[in-house]
Amino acid sequence: MYKEILQSIEGVSIYPIISLVVFVLFFAIILIWMFKVDKNYIKKMENLPFEKEEENNFNNTGDLYEKKV
Question: At residue 13, what are phi and psi to the nearest 5 degrees?
Fold first, then answer.
């Protein structure tokens, strides 16, 4: 059933190509970000779950970079 429906759609062969390009671009961007990110930021993020709640620097909006007043 699906085979007949997909065969009747004109230009359907472009969708797998677009999906592959999006997939590869996403992981390429993640790899580039991984090598360029500040190592102190990574250390801070990996230790964040172990910090006590009152030591976290979150304000009411959940923004990490603004201190609670």
Answer: -70, -15
Extents of the domains making up the chain: 2-55
Spans in the chain with pLDDT lower than 50: none
Residue 55 Ramachandran class (φ > 0 left, ψ -120 to 50 alpha, else beta): alpha
CA distance 33 to 8: 41
Q: Which amino acid is at 26?
A: F
**Residue found under tokens 């759609």:** 9
Q: How many residues does the chain have?
A: 69
CB 59 within 8 A of CB 66: yes
Q: What is the pTM of this model?
A: 0.53
